[in-house]
Amino acid sequence: MDTTNERIAAAPLPTSGELKRRHNPFLQFARFMRINWTMWRLARKHH
């Protein structure tokens, strides 16, 4: 039994503030750099 559509319908919708943050290229770039920095640190720490 596939419950995918029911799960999608029950998922919470993003708020207007969250949508603004998702569409802001500067915030997206900062988030991207933070994730990359974290991955780089983890790679350096374990090798």
Counting DSSP E segments of at least 2 residues, the number of strands comes to 0
Number of helices: 3
Share in β-strands: under 5%
In this structure, how is the largest beta sheet organized? none
Unreliable spans are: none
End-to-end distance? 45 Å
- The SSE string, one letter per element, is HHH
Mean pLDDT: 93
Q: Which percent range fits the helix content?
A: over 70%
Structural class: mainly alpha
Radius of gyration: 17 Å
Note the overall shape: flat
Your description of this structure?
The protein is mostly helical. The chain contains 3 helices and no strands.
Would you kindly provide a brief summary of this structure?
By secondary structure, this protein is mainly alpha-helical. The chain has three helices and no strands. It starts with a helix and ends with a helix.
Which features characterize this protein?
mainly alpha, 47 residues
Topology at a glance:
Blueprint: H1 4-10, H2 16-23, H3 25-46
